[in-house]
Structures are given as structure tokens and as C-alpha cells.
Design brief:
Strand order of the largest sheet: 2-1-3-4-5
Shape: globular
Number of domains: 1
CATH superfamily: RNA-binding S4 domain
Number of helices: 2
Subunit structure: Associates with stalled 50S ribosomal subunits. Binds to RqcH, 23S rRNA and the P-site tRNA. Does not require RqcH for association with 50S subunits.
Pfam family, one: S4
Family: Belongs to the RqcP family.
InterPro entries: RqcP (IPR025490), S4_RNA-bd (IPR002942), S4_RNA-bd_sf (IPR036986)
Keywords: Protein biosynthesis, RNA-binding, rRNA-binding, tRNA-binding
Radius of gyration: 13 Å
Structural class: alpha+beta
CATH architecture: Roll
Length: 88
Amino acid sequence: MRLDKFLKISRLVRRRTIAKEIADQGRIEINNKVAKSSANVGTGDLITIHFGNKTITVKVLKLAELVKKDEAGEMYELVKEEYERDFR
């Protein structure tokens, strides 16, 4: 499954176009390698997403074409969540 589609279906990102933009800016990694929006995602992959001052790492548990809103969280497992501190 494409990276941008997985992020949209799993509800990690609200829109597929936003997922594509983030990936094309080099802010998403799959297994510690920068990934484009068209990269393939498989079960067991680690996806790291850099949002502004927040970075999350998730492990892909399953892939599905259609998922209900309350079941979207079952597609991944949150591995790590970090916040950058502003020391101004």
C-alpha cells in the first residue's frame, strides 16, 4: 500500500494530499530511510513522522483498504512520541 494512502486510512494524517506534501518534504521515514509518498508500506514497518515540534514513530500492524473510524487505531502501534523543546 502506498505511504500516503496508509497515513490517510489509518487517520495519522487527515488528508491524503497533506500526507503527500509531508512525505515529499522529506519529513517521513520508513525503517529509518526517507520515504516519498509513493513508497510501499508493509506490515512490521516502522514509520517516523516529523510534525512541527512533534515526532511520532508507529509500527504497521495491518493493511486494509477500508477501515471504520473507530478501527483505524488497530492498523498501527505507537512506538515513540517525542516533543522538541523550545529553549528561547
